[in-house]
Amino acid sequence: MRISILDVQTLGDDINFDAVRNLGEVTVYDLTRQEDVIDRIGDAEVVILNKVKLTAENLPYAKNLKLICITATGFDNVDLAYCRAHGIGVCNVAGYSTDSVVQLTVAMAFSLATNLNTFDRYVKSGAYTASGVFNCVKPVFREISQLTWGVAGLGNIGGKVAKMAKTMGCRVLAYKRTPSEDYPTVDMDTLCRECDIISLHTPLSPETHHLIDARRLSLMKDGAILINVARGAVVDEAAVAKAVLDGKLGGLGVDVFSTEPMQPDSPYQALLNRENVIFTPHMAWGSIDARQRCMDEVAKNIESFVEGGARSRLV
């Protein structure tokens, strides 16, 4: 079986691919430009990819293709209708990165709520040594246990974030389509009004595009903390940047951007030197544990397909 991995660099070169290599003849590409897709899928029976787009324009050239394995939960980069019409199976991997994303979410919340960047810089700059005072407790920070944490999107990731917030003593409010049995469920405006910390875990859809906009930012408590580990366009980035610059938001954590990587004209460029802002390069999903788990799940999906099963099948 001929297997092509089109963008292995998105998974990293520090994980073990033996489970896939044991299934056939594997050709590995670090990255694949869209103009190179046709050449690289032409002989493959199985294609493994992350971000590369497989469409009705390039898929007809893959005459031997039987299965597409996406190393992610999202699948908007593969034309499912074409695959369904032409008998090409498609699998994704769900749930592999839950703990990794939860960890970054909580780390951002704790760091921003405690002003860790500011205190760290105070010591490293020499100001603490020069002060002659044994401690420094400004800027003021509050205990997480005294805060209300709003979780927008209560799926696997949001649900576990809510559980951890509750364990820390937070009052937890949830925004989701249907009421939760575990947490008070409120509309988004109420979530913005009542919460000290808001973390976003929703998929991007027409309903969630700019879920956080200028109006909802204006509803938030002064000094509220906003964390986006969902999708970049779930927030209006220009409005969010302005809320930080104006002092409305007390903290901002962002792992996802409307265009990735962050562009030179991104509104977030104005926040690069802010101590109350944490930017990470869409890495929340990517602990080595999660990346290895993802590739092992892909191997299991291929094995299932070969045996006539439908494990993790989208099509």
Write up this protein.
With 315 residues, this protein is α/β, with parallel strands linked by helices. It folds into two domains: 2-94 and 288-306, 3-Layer(aba) Sandwich (Rossmann fold), CATH 3.40.50; 98-279, NAD(P)-binding Rossmann-like Domain (Rossmann fold). It contains eleven helices and eleven strands. It has helices spanning 18-21, 37-41, 80-85, 98-114, 116-124, 127-131, 156-167, 188-194, 214-219, 237-245, 288-306; strands at 2-5, 25-28, 46-49, 67-70, 89-91, 148-152, 171-175, 197-200, 224-228, 249-254, 277-279. The strands form two sheets. The chain has a six-stranded parallel sheet with strand order 7-6-8-9-10-11, sandwiched between helices. The chain has a five-stranded parallel sheet with strand order 2-1-3-4-5. The radius of gyration is 22 Å and the shape is elongated.
How do the helices and strands line up, and which of them pair or pack?
Blueprint: E1 2-5, H1 18-21, E2 25-28, H2 37-41, E3 46-49, E4 67-70, H3 80-85, E5 89-91, H4 98-114, H5 116-124, H6 127-131, E6 148-152, H7 156-167, E7 171-175, H8 188-194, E8 197-200, H9 214-219, E9 224-228, H10 237-245, E10 249-254, E11 277-279, H11 288-306
Parallel strand pairs: 1-2, 1-3, 3-4, 4-5, 6-7, 6-8, 8-9, 9-10, 10-11
